[in-house]
Amino acid sequence: MEIASFDREHVWHPYAPVPAPVPQHVVTGASGVRIALADGRELVDGMSSWWSAIHGYRHPRLDRAIGDQLGAMAHVMFGGLTHAPAVELARTLTAMTGLPKVFFADSGSVAVEVAIKMALQYGRASGRTRLMTVRGGYHGDTFGAMAVCDPVNGMHHMFASVLPEHVFAGEPPAHLSEAYLAELESTVARHSAELAAIIVEPVVQGAGGMRFYHPGYLRRLRELADEHGILLIADEIATGFGRTGELFGCDHAGVRPDIMCLGKALTGGYLSLAATLCTERVAEGVGVLMHGPTFMANPLATAVARASLELLAERPWREEVKGIEAGLSEGLAGARGLPGVRDVRVLGAIGVIETEAPVDVPEVQRTVMAHGVWLRPFGRLIYTMPPYPIGADDLALITRAMVAAAQAL
């Protein structure tokens, strides 16, 4: 096929060389929870297009929102101008989060960059120029974001010599540990005079390893930030909008951050859009924020994002996610005790099989595709984050494919 052959020789794909060492499968369409391939196969999408298509594909309400907005304007600059889709989305987000100030960005990584800029501008007067985070985290692929990703086991070690050096505590354990609480307390106290902010992914560490940790650590970080006059940044790009069983990861701990980053599921997987929100106090301390993307608050993206959040508010997403959690727990139980399997874990609409050794990604994909499923494993992880409206039969298909892949290892 001409598309596939040209793609292989000329197009970079995520975290891959060019030419690509493995085939890239040509997609011709997507609807509901399925994607259609050029070779005629249909696959149940267990990835929600990297966790973004929470409502599935071609939802008529979201299609209509795009079409209606396209009839008015596709884009207009946000410098000196504004428009209803952006303002109404901001109104929705401030009500959902309790954070009154909104900066619209292009992508999740840029939302993190903006959050870091906010924190550093806010802390500049007191000479606070560093951030603290925990190992095992992932916050994006741009330079500011890379600097707060895991410096040892992350994907960005080759850039270590040119990144700012921030402060890292160890990986947060799954269960509440007094020893780890003490580590957090001592790390913050030791560096408090230089820390502008603490940045973490609430409760779930996503692309850094799909780890789940006890909400008590997030509560203690909120307390420590308040005690030492440090900002708390919650990177909710992967955890926001119901994925973990709560609307936001912070809700598991009952805390509100000073700055919150949102993305991925914000538009229901239709267009790239992110947002960084903050408190009134932070906004006043920052003043003029030196950032301004060309496509900031794009009307098409903000229109479909508002429609997606309205749809989320109306659908029984809590019940859907609880159902997915139950189905994943039951379906993945067969992987426990398999040779080479280190752990099986489920939280909300996230299911993970962690292996002892790095998986053979092409081989895993061949196995799951033979079962009629699309997954994208990485590192030592075979995992799924399915769309919320997935049915029980399709969910069972995903878990059978994951267990089969683990058995094949």
Automatic annotation (TrEMBL):
Residues recorded with modification N6-(pyridoxal phosphate)lysine? 264
Q: Give the residue range of the signal peptide.
A: none
Tell me which residues are marked as the site Participates in the substrate recognition with KAPA and in a stacking interaction with the adenine ring of SAM.
15
A GO biological process held by the record: biotin biosynthetic process
Quick one: which pathway?
Answer: Cofactor biosynthesis; biotin biosynthesis; 7,8-diaminononanoate from 8-amino-7-oxononanoate (SAM route): step 1/1
Database matches in InterPro entries: Aminotrans_3, Aminotrans_3_PPA_site, BioA, PyrdxlP-dep_Trfase, PyrdxlP-dep_Trfase_major, PyrdxlP-dep_Trfase_small
- Primary localization class, coarse: cytoplasm
EC identifiers of the protein: 2.6.1.62
Q: Where in the cell is it found?
A: Cytoplasm
Superkingdom, natural source: Bacteria
Sequence similarity: Belongs to the class-III pyridoxal-phosphate-dependent aminotransferase family. BioA subfamily.
UniProt name for this protein: Adenosylmethionine-8-amino-7-oxononanoate aminotransferase
Species of origin: Thermocatellispora tengchongensis
